Amino acid sequence: PVALTVAASRIVGRKATGGIVAMTVTELKTLLALVIGDISINADLDIGVHTLKTDRVEESLEAAGVTIDGVELKDGKIPLSDVNPDVDLAMGAHNITLGAGQTVDGVDISEIGIRRTITEMMVYG
Asked: Has this prediction a pTM greater than 0.70?
């Protein structure tokens, strides 16, 4: 056995050529063929792709003209009185329509439909 000094935040591995070494993060990413988008959904993407996060999108889109399943949002939310629990609160896909002037990263997306699959649960007391 040969002693190998390994610095903090390193991993021991064998690259395509050479012996066993303490690899850097960059070398490990190369070995695993990873891109930043594979590692963290919230990471800055370095591959020229913009991702629209749709978590709780109905509460963050407050502009007039935004609808979910045809129901217009009021103050960024769908009023419970406008929801049909037999249809709207079932697991499934929702169609979100944006009003004029909606942008993501400065790009007008008002003509783009967003399809989002979510799971919702309603508790009746």
From this structure: no
- Give the start-to-end residue ranges of the domains of the chain: 1-49, 57-118
Strand partners, 56: none
Helix (H) or strand (E) segment spanning residue 58: helix 57-60
Phi and psi at residue 116, to the nearest 5°:
-135, 130
Measuring CA to CA, which residue among 43, 9, 4, 44 is closest to residue 27? 9
Give exposure, 97-117, as e/b (b: 16+ Cβ within 10 Å): bbeeebeeeeeeeeeeebeee
Q: What is the pLDDT of residues 8-29, one digit of tens each?
A: 877 888 877 888 888 887 787 7
